[in-house]
């Protein structure tokens, strides 16, 4: 599977940015990526005060490449960059070896 990781540093971000990011994901970003053609799934991860990250898994290398090229070209203006106040520190393609779904199933909601 074709993956992409986009990470921002939160080391110099303003106070309250973690809550702003949670709200943005819940109210806007989750809906934007739900049902997106070429995307298998996306997860949003964060360690407050350290980093915020989007992890994407695409159906093909072509889908990943197209998204990565578009995102990279506008990374400085991406909503995450605007909220955090800086561009991503990492945009990295990767190979997802496997995904396992646990007994309790997958929860696809913007707030957990």
From TrEMBL:
Superkingdom of origin organism: Bacteria
The protein, known as: Uncharacterized protein
Originating organism: Nocardioides szechwanensis
